[in-house]
Amino acid sequence: MYACIALLALSTSAYAQKDAKQELAQQLDSEISGALFERTVAAVEVRDCENGQILFSRNADLLLRPASNAKLFTSAAALLGLPENVHFRTTLSAVDSTLKSIVLTGGADPQLGEKDIQKLADIAHEGGVREIDTLFLDGTLLDDAFYGPGWMWDDESDPFMPYLSAFPFGGNTVRITCAASTQKGLPLEVSVFPSTRSITVENRAVSGSRTDLDIDKFPRSNRIVIEGTLRAGRKAHKRLSLWQPETVVAELLLASFRENGITADSVVIVHDAPWTVGGELGKATHGIDRVLEELNKESDNLSAESLLRLLASEVSPGRHGISAEDGIAAMKHVLKKHGFPVDDLHLRDGSGISFYNLVPASFIGALLAGMAQTSHFERYAASLAVAGKDGTLQRRMRNLRFPGTFRGKTGTVSGVSALSGYAQAPGGRLLSVVILMQNFHGKHRPYREIQDRIVQHCLRYSGRLKEATPPR
User: Fold this and answer.
1) What distance in Å separates the CA atoms of residue 382 and residue 212, rounded to the nearest whole number?
2) I want to staple 458 with a disulfide (CB 3.0 to 4.6 A). Which of 43, 274, 326, 423 is the partner?
3) Which positions ≥6 away from 311 have C-beta within 8 Å?
4) What's the pLDDT band for 428 if we cut at 50, 70, 90?
5) 3-class SS at 369?
């Protein structure tokens, strides 16, 4: 009798799950079957991370542009392929015992900033450096391609398209702040960071009765022109891409040397071969966890491209002139080694900027489900934006019954909107959710709203399998 009861309970549970799956399919079908998708492609896949069962799939095998969902592959390969204690390194060395010729070796550290420059200057002073006749910059870790393959040339001034260098600084952006006087007709007060001679600003703007302000940068330069009017008493802010950040790093380091009482003169930038050094004085370093957060939570493209190249340098120690192609080869090597098929992975960069990137939604789903079974899952999930809380999802899905139950990665370029991540209902199953939408014109908001509803349908399905309880 007990066996019959158990069998009946199991059968009832199986039917309940089958009904739940059918209901989920109907809900998601209705979301992507409207007029909005008559000429727009939508690929959706939802799978159970516990057993790999695919709960819903539409167009999941089509090759589509992932936009910044490509960062999911970059971060996964980094966690799987890099030592846990790996660091980005910017190293200061002396050519010989005279300590008059100093070499700064770039490590493509996306976190390199003011404090690191000052630290390197302090290291030099503590190491006995008092007079420098030549500062060499060894940027040969990376190749000479300062933009990735398939990047759009006319996006050059936009900070989302970073200049690639072994010496990034401050996210490779220039930050402009304009303040208007309360008296109309007066020139704006302008502040620039970083403040160096290589960044020039022509301020032609004045305070006025309304705001009609243009802040533009000349292509392939750090020449910035400000024109128009800013309403009296107001402030305006803008970020622009930084051209040739190695020049800024050199200027700031020389200035820090002088502040430390070190006489410093010329600069030579070395591109053709690694510089032979006599002895290391010290280095500025950063671990990858913060980089992973910037990469996934904030969708920072510089962090993605730098991490991709760090992976290549670890897979092939001692390698110089590292390219995006080298990074993708290292990514595929690591993923294949950990059991992920890579035949359908067609990426040309680590950030998702390239118009050449193509990936099926099913592969993203397999990656998410596979990473959930690894020992790296906690770090991987922690790097993703939390719906309604932080990163690129901070202002989305704020009405979730249990906050923090969806972690994901957004993707946005012209005509493409994507969202992939993990839906975890309290007490329920962990689902991978992949949504790729492309070939549309106009605003992204209608597509994002549908993506958010798809996630909420998945959360309700997950919670139905077990009694949902509030998270602790």
Assistant:
1) 41
2) 423
3) 74, 77, 78, 81, 82, 327, 330, 331, 334
4) confident
5) helix
Q: Is the pLDDT of residue 1 over 80?
A: no
Q: What DSSP designation does 470 have? A: -
Question: Between the CA atoms of 375, 376, 382 and 387, what dihedral angle is there, to the nearest 10 degrees?
Answer: -80
What mean pLDDT do residues 243-252 have?
96
H-helix or E-strand containing 23? helix 2-31
Determine contact, residues 304/350, Cβ cutoff 8 Å: yes
> 13 pLDDT exceeds 80?
no
Cβ 347 vs Cβ 70: under 8 Å: yes
Report the predicted TM-score, pTM, of the whole model to 2 decimal places. Answer: 0.92
Strands of 87-94's sheet, edge to edge?
A: 263-270, 131-138, 101-105, 87-94, 279-287
**What is the distance between the terminal CA atoms of the chain, rounded to a whole angstrom?**
39
- Of 137, 127, 136, give the one whose Cα is nearest residue 169: 137
Structure tokens that stand for 49 in this block:
């991370």
Cβ atoms within 10 A of the Cβ of 13, count?
11
- What is the domain partition of the chain in residue ranges? 19-83+291-465, 87-145+246-282, 170-241
Region of residue 333 (left: phi > 0; alpha: psi -120 to 50; beta: else) = alpha
CATH topology for 19-83+291-465 is: Beta-lactamase (3.40.710)
Does 87-145+246-282 match 19-83+291-465 at the fold level? no
Dihedral sign of CA atoms 139, 144, 149, 150 in order: positive
- Decide: residue 27, CB within 10 A, 0-12 exposed, 13-18 middle, 19+ buried: middle
* Residue 24 pLDDT class (50, 70, 90 cuts): very high
Neighbouring CB atoms inside 10 A of 246's CB total: 21
Assess whether pLDDT exceeds 60 at residue 465. no
Distances (CA, A) of 47 to 25, 362, 452: 12, 9, 17
d(CA 140, CA 223): 26
> Which residue stretches of 245-355 are H helix?
245-259, 288-296, 301-315, 324-337
Question: Picking from 212-216, 275-279, 358-362, 414-418, which range would have the lowest pLDDT averaged per residue?
Answer: 275-279
Structural contact between residues 283 and 326, judged by C-beta atoms closer than 8 angstroms: no
pLDDT band at 435; cut points 50, 70, 90: very high
Fold of 87-145+246-282: D-tyrosyl-trna(Tyr) Deacylase; Chain: A; (3.50.80)
Measured CA angle at 300 (ends 298, 306), to 5 deg: 140
DSSP assignment, residue 78?
Answer: H
